[in-house]
Design brief:
Two copies of one chain form a homodimer.
Chain A lengths: L1 H15 L4 H15 L4 H11 L6 H12 L7 H23 L3 E2 L2 E2 L1 H4 L2 H20 L5 H21 L9 H25 L6 H28 L2 H4 L5 H4 L5 H8 L3 H11 L7 H8 L3 H21 L7 H15 L3
Antiparallel strand pairs in A: 1-2
Helix pairs in contact in A: 2-5, 4-5, 4-9, 4-17, 5-7, 5-9, 8-9, 9-10, 10-16, 10-17, 13-16, 14-15, 16-17
Chain lengths: 334, 334
């Protein structure tokens, strides 16, 4: 049943991306050739990366935003490749940070090899992505993506300093979530609309905000899935956030409105002394339903707000696809 | 006594770098301002990095090579800053990979905080370095350094796949050592001579080769110090290579000429079952003196070869400093 639902969802996504089929194919060919290596030790690893290719939503956003804004620059598939490679680099390092085991039903690099090699492979991916960006006709990609990467790292560092921060406010949670995830969504839409030079700043800004809001919604849904999702359906390790002391939106709001005895039980499920399934402990400590509903409500609001940004664009299949992508993010279970 | 010798050596280096004093000061100011952050969690870490600043040899090479080649472009201190920041990024990640504890007498980032944060901080440094390179007038720095970073990572990945590779030949050892370390020395000299555009390809190539050879010599000496150096004098953790299964030049050549019983004892000192001081075990397994002498001989040959590269340059204080730097690398104990 889960497999069927996933297949239906996959088919729907494929339909959404039809307007940019050709560009996506060029992007995939470009990433493959960028990841090739003469060194067997390196190519064995980069080939493994192919197995958790995923939906390549960020690359699709570059191409859809470009189409929707009437931009058909021939280097756009390479721009999308750079974004996809930076995303891959962050995934490989994230899996080290989270001690994750499975990504998209395949063993993570840190599991298949080890943490050392995963750190190096992530560094290599960053370097290749930046190198590819320096071969393009405009320095815009290098500029925007080196700045974006800084914001991602800062967000992750602040998050690492906020473990078990149950008193954190919602703004701080969203600041971290946006830095971590919305940054690349924003950059994808901005570059798609603007590359190689922003002729229509209003449209570029609208699409950048669209990316930021959809990206934040994506991270909120991701956090909900890690908290209450099923590993088999999600296709990657779940429960990492509780394990790692990350207090995500549903827990944050549940904790804020809980009485002291419930708070103590929530803290215990995150505590050093705890051993066992932390998600089970958390669920018996409190009722997360209202927190999950509030988080999903916030994600829905963000997607609605994002869709309004598209009003400045002329009607097109790509504009329609962008506005449907938000719903896809809300409904995803992977 | 050791402290005195180090002080004498420090003073000698300071004299060597006198021709580029002003540029080095500008480089340091540039790196400091690039590492500043509004986020306390981030700035606390970047400030800590200031405490293991080191000799900044790579930055000095940019400025000395520029002077020696008659290049006085005003952006050279920023070029040197980009190299120094990439070097810092590799140090932070190296310390994670090596599980190192002390660098230049200060706790490593992975010890003071943890591995997760050290990975992120390294990523942030790479991103800031690349971003700084995109603000310069020529794309040369972005191009050369993104390619250089790839070579460094590939070298490290190949090294990670060569643990306890006692049968490795000297060429493969040097391939890895050069990729890891000579790459940035080469890039520093090449950029110093060529930035923002190579007008004199012969001189640029000569200085690039000078950097490559001095850099490889540096790594060979580094490996010797890790094997037989004293932690207090070296100022950073020693014995990491044996611990991590890295078979470096002195061990490699000792192993190659040893009989089977000595080989077995060497392998045991590197083995999984071993517990205790591996360097002590290795030294009782075999006499490393000849291997150390051979490695130091190779480093001396490389420096002599590097110095011949300088023949194409007119005499100048910077040319003289470059040729003395090689000797400094050979004599260093830190």
């Amino acid at each position: 049943m889960k497999a069927l639902t996933n297949r239906i969802r996959d088919r729907r996504l494929a339909q959404l991306l039809e307007p940019v089929d050709v560009g996506m194919e060029q992007m995939r060919a470009c990433v493959s050739s960028e990841l090739a290596s003469d060194h067997p030790a390196v190519s064995e690893m980069t080939e493994h990366l192919g197995s958790f290719r995923g939906k390549q939503l960020r690359a699709a956003l570059v191409l859809l935003a470009a189409r929707a804004a009437g931009n058909d620059h021939p280097e756009l598939p390479q721009v999308a490749s750079v974004i996809e490679m930076i995303h891959l680099a962050t995934l490989v390092h994230d899996d080290v940070l989270d001690g994750a085991e499975v990504r998209r039903r395949v063993a993570c690099v840190n599991q298949r090899w080890d943490n050392q090699v995963a750190v190096l492979l992530g560094d290599l991916l960053y370097a290749r992505a930046f190198h590819l960006s320096t071969t393009l006709c405009s320095p815009m990609v290098s500029e925007i993506l080196s700045r974006a990467t800084q914001r991602i790292c800062e967000g992750e560092i602040i998050q690492a300093g906020s473990r078990r921060a149950f008193e954190m406010d919602v703004e701080q949670y969203e600041y971290i979530a946006a830095a971590k995830t919305a940054t690349l969504y924003r950059a994808a839409c901005e570059l798609g609309a603007a590359y190689p030079a922003a002729d229509n700043p209003e449209q570029v800004e609208a699409l950048a905000c669209f990316g930021e809001e959809v990206g934040l919604a994506f991270q909120i849904v991701d956090d909900v899935l890690d908290l209450v999702g099923d590993q088999e359906a999600v296709g990657k390790s779940v429960g990492n956030d509780v394990e790692d002391g990350k207090v995500t939106l549903p827990v944050l709001t549940t904790y804020a409105s809980a009485d002291e005895s419930v708070r103590t039980a929530i803290r215990a499920a995150y505590g050093d002394e705890f051993s066992g399934d932390r998600r089970v402990a958390l669920r018996s400590a409190c009722n997360l339903d209202a927190g999950v509903d509030r988080a999903m409500g916030r994600a829905r609001d963000l997607v609605a707000q994002a869709n309004k940004r598209l009003n400045c664009l002329d009607a097109s299949p790509s504009k329609a696809a962008l506005s449907m992508l938000g719903d896809y993010v809300l409904e995803r279970k992977w």
